[in-house]
Amino acid sequence: MTKGEIAEHCFKGGFNCAASVLSSFCEEYDLDTELATKLACGLGGGYGEGGICGAASAGVLVVGLKYGQSIQGDTGSKTNCYAKTAQFIDAFRQKNSALTCDELLADKPQGNEEEAVKERRQFCAGLVKGAAEILEELGY
After folding, report:
1. Which residue, among 46, 10, 48, has the nearest Cα to 26 in the 3D structure?
2. What pLDDT, in 10s, does the model give residues 1-55?
3. The predicted structure's pLDDT at residue 11
4. Quick check: pTM over 0.85?
5. How far apart, in Å, do the first and last CA atoms of the chain sit?
6. Confidence band (pLDDT; 50, 70, 90) for 124?
7. Is residue 4 left, alpha or beta, with left meaning phi > 0 and alpha meaning psi from -120 to 50?
8. Given this model, what pLDDT does residue 109 score?
9. Is 9 left (phi over 0), alpha (psi -120 to 50) or beta?
10. What whole-number distance in Å separates Cα of residue 62 and Cα of residue 65?
């Protein structure tokens, strides 16, 4: 399975968008899956408020796993991580035309009606898969 398929499977299995993306990269970065899903839980649904998409936020966490600063004073790694983060975010925006849940879901049915929720979840499953695919394409 590709990382995108793994992330989509996790999402459809009940994890939120952020937990699904981050957990699909746990093996490569020796990160405990239970810890990853807990860490990412609060990022789902745009921090639960329609803000920055949880799939994109988790993508940034994956960037940090590979390029993040781990030594105090190492500004070079921090600068590189910021550049790699911008590269991922630009690719996410280009693919999806937006970065926040509110913008991404603006034309989707609202409310708690079963069909509206189903359509939004299906759309978000595509965002989750897409975020993991972008990361794969960028070499994560």
Report:
1. 10
2. 999 999 999 999 999 999 999 999 999 999 999 999 999 999 999 999 999 999 9
3. 98
4. yes
5. 15
6. very high
7. alpha
8. 87
9. alpha
10. 5
Q: Which residue has the tokens 């839980």?
A: 41
Per-residue HEC secondary structure of the chain comes to CCHHHHHHHHHHCCCCHHHHHHHCCCCCCCCCHHHHHHHHHHHHHHHHHHCECHHHHHHHHHHHHHHCCCCCCCHHHHHHHHHHHHHHHHHHHHHHCCCEHHHHCCCCCCCCCHHHHHHHHHHHHHHHHHHHHHHHHCCC
Q: Which two tokens stand for residue 86?
A: 């911008």
Which pair of tokens denotes residue 16? 């939120």
Q: For residues 56 and 96, give the distance between their C-alpha atoms in angstroms, rounded to a whole number.
A: 11
